[in-house]
Specification:
Number of domains: 1
Structural class: mainly alpha
Distance between the termini: 46 Å
Largest sheet: none
Order of helices and strands: HH
Helix content: over 70%
């Protein structure tokens, strides 16, 4: 998606501010989704297991 927006910038459809704004929103959205998933995976790893 970021590459597509950068292509639009190169063509002249978007300006640099729009490209930076879209990239920042995508990156921060990914971080918001990534952190709870990794926290849940870490919490599952801390749970005691009954396997021998």
């Amino acid at each position: 998606m970021i590459v597509l927006v950068a292509l639009f910038f190169a063509v002249g459809y978007y300006n640099l501010t729009a490209v930076e704004l879209i990239a920042a929103v995508l990156i921060f959205s990914w971080i918001i989704v990534f952190l709870p998933i990794t926290e849940a995976a870490r919490a599952d790893g801390d749970a005691p297991t009954t396997e021998r």
